[in-house]
């Protein structure tokens, strides 16, 4: 598993939250719990709203920032790629009094589940994905997913 951080002023101020999130350990444990082969790879890019907006426009045709993008891999031995806006995660977590670490964890698991084929387009899928997220983030509050439309 590869976790890389972009170089940006926004990220430099959030290094503590990134460390506290322990994303490498979380994603390895989550992969184990979900039956992902130990040698399967997942690339994670920690970046800012500007880069997520660019990726969102380029790959999904939506010219707007978002918190996480997941790109499932079509090849054996690869789970996929995630891009997470640390800037947005910190802002979203501040609403509940956090420092960003919990939201980074939530977004990483959410993206991993998308790479593994989970979705939340329908209410039943959203409920299943919420349940899987809660199991992987035991002890951390996880909001109900709203079906994507």
From TrEMBL:
EC numbers on record: 3.1.-.-
Places the protein is found: Cytoplasm
EC top class, as a word: hydrolase
Keyword Transmembrane helix in annotation: no
Transferase recorded as keyword: no
Major subcellular location class: cytoplasm
SUPFAM superfamilies per UniProt: Metalloproteases ('zincins'), catalytic domain
Cofactor comment: Binds 1 zinc ion.
Binding, Zn(2+): 110, 114, 120
Keyword field: Cytoplasm, Endonuclease, Hydrolase, Metal-binding, Nuclease, Ribosome biogenesis, rRNA processing, Zinc
Gene Ontology biological process terms in this record: rRNA processing
CC annotations in GO: cytoplasm
Highest taxon of source: Bacteria
NCBIfam families: rRNA maturation RNase YbeY
Biological role stated in the UniProt entry: Single strand-specific metallo-endoribonuclease involved in late-stage 70S ribosome quality control and in maturation of the 3' terminus of the 16S rRNA.
Family: Belongs to the endoribonuclease YbeY family.
Protein name, as recorded: Endoribonuclease YbeY
Organism listed in the record: Candidatus Aeolococcus gillhamiae
Classification lineage: Bacteria, Bacillati, Candidatus Dormiibacterota, Candidatus Dormibacteria, Candidatus Aeolococcales
Gene that this polypeptide is encoded by: ybeY
């Amino acid at each position: 598993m590869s976790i890389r951080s972009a170089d940006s002023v926004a990220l430099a101020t959030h290094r503590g939250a990134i460390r506290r999130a322990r994303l490498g350990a979380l994603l390895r444990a989550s992969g184990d719990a979900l039956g992902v082969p130990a040698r399967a790879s997942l690339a994670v890019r920690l970046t800012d709203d500007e880069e997520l907006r660019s990726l969102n426009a380029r790959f999904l045709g939506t010219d707007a920032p978002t918190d996480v993008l997941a790109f499932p891999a079509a090849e054996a031995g690869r789970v996929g790629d995630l891009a997470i806006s640390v800037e947005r995660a910190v802002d979203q977590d501040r609403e509940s009094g956090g420092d960003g670490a919990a939201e980074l964890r939530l977004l990483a698991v959410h993206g991993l589940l998308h790479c593994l084929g989970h979705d939340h387009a329908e209410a039943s899928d959203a409920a299943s994905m919420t349940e899987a997220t809660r199991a992987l983030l035991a002890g951390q509050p996880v909001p109900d997913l709203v079906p994507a439309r």
